[in-house]
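Interim report to the steering committee. The following record documents the input for tRNA nucleotidyltransferase (477 residues).
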Amino acid sequence: MEKVQLPEHPIFNVVAEAAGELNVDAYVIGGFVRDLVLKRTSKDIDVVCVGDGIGLATQVAQKLPHRPKVSIFKNFGTAMLRSGEWEVEFVGARKESYREHSRKPEVEQGTLDDDLKRRDFTINALGISLNKTNYGELIDAFDGLKDMRRKIIRTPLEPGITFSDDPLRMMRAIRFASQLTFDIDPDTFDAIVDNKERIKIVSQERITDELNKIILSPVPSYGFKLLFASGLLHLIFPKMVELQGVETINGNSHKDNFYHTLQVLDNVAQVSDDLWLRWSAILHDIAKPDTKRYHPKAGWTFHGHEDRGARMVSRLFRDLKLPLNEHMKFVEKLVRLHLRPIALVKETVTDSAIRRLLFEAGDDIDALMKLCRADITSKNDTKVKRYLQNFDKVEQRLVEVEESDKLRNFQPVITGEIIMETFGLKPSKTVGELKETLTEAILEGKVKNEFDEAYAFLLERGKELGLRQIHSSNTNN
C-alpha cells in the first residue's frame, strides 16, 4: 500500500497514541489528505475513529501539553480542539441514509468503509492511517488518488443517488472543479443536470456560501460556465442568466453580456482577491437586459444601466442572503460609478470632472479603477492596449488633483450647523440647498475648501436668497 508523509507536527503522534490507549482505529481523512497530496496548505484536520470520536478527542486533549478545551457537539457526535494554528475535528465512523425531502441524514455507527462511502467525491474519500500497525498508509477505496492525478471530480457511489441525497454536493462538485481546475466526470456531470431541481431543498445560505467560494476561485468563470451548462445557475441566480445571448436587428448585434461579465470577473480575479470587488464585476452590467433598446441610427443602447443596476443590488443581496451592510454599499457604489472613469479618457477631461469622481468614489477609487480596467474586453488587443494607456493618464490626473485638493471623502468646511447659526435657520430644505451649492462650487473649483473663502461664498449666496446674516462665525477649520 502507498504511504503518505504526514507533516512534522506532534498532533498526529498524540492522536495515534491516544487511539492506541483506547484500543480504537483512527484515520486522518477527507480534505486534509486531499490537500496534502495536492501540496496545498491546510490547517483543518478531520480525524475519524472506528469507535467513540468524542472520547478520542478528550483523550488527545489530556495528552497535549497545553490541555486545549474540547468543544463537543453531541447532536452531530463530533468534537473539536485547537492545537496552535491547527483545528482538529473528531468523529466516529458512521453510515448515513437520507429521506427524499431533506438533506439531513439519519446517522448510525459504521465501519471505516461506511464512512468513506458517505463522502461526496473520491478525492475526499482518502484516509491516512494513524494506527501502529500501518501508520502513514494511504486508504484509497475509490481510486481517489487516480482521479486526483487525472484531475477528475467523481462521486464514490452512483452519482444520481449522491446528489439526490444531498443536493448541495452538486454545488460542491462545481466548486472543487473551479478551485482545483479539475474536470467533472461525464456521468457525475450528467447526474447534476438530472438532479438540478433538487437544489431547491437546500437553504439559500448554504448555496451562497458555495457560490462565494466559486467566485473566489483563481479563474471563477470556469465555475460559472459549469453552473450555466448544468442548469443550476438558472435556478440559483436567474438574473445573471438573463445576460446571456445575442440579439441581432438589421445586421446589428450587441455583445453577449453574460460572457463579457465572466471575462470582467476573471480580469478582476487576476488583480484582487476581494470577494466584494468580484461581486461588483458580476453585477456591473446586471441591468443591461432591462435597459436594452434598439434605435435604427444609434444601434443597441443600454442607457442608465449603471443607475438601475445599483438600485438592483440591495434586492439581489437580500435574495441571495448576502450581507446587507457596508459590503453591499460598496458594490452599489461601484456598479453606479463603473462608467464614470471611462468617460474621463478624453484629452479634454476637466479638473472638475476628476474632483467629482474623487468625491463620489472616496476611498473606493482604487477599487473602482481596477473594475474599470477589467471592464475593457475586446478581441482587438490594440484597442485594449490603447484604452489601458488612457486609463494610465486618468489615474495620473486623479493622483495630481487629489494631492492638490484633498477631495477624497472630503466634507465642506462650512457645516450645516454653521449655516443655521449664520442665518438663524432651523433644519430645513434651504440649509440643505445652501450646503449643496457650496459643495458644487468647491467641486467646480470656483471656491477652495478653506474657511474664509467658503464662508464668504456662503454669505454671498445667502444674500441672493434674501437671507440676513444674524451671526458672524469665527470658527476656522
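DSSP finds 23 helices and 15 strands in the chain. The committee is asked to note this result when reviewing the revised timeline.
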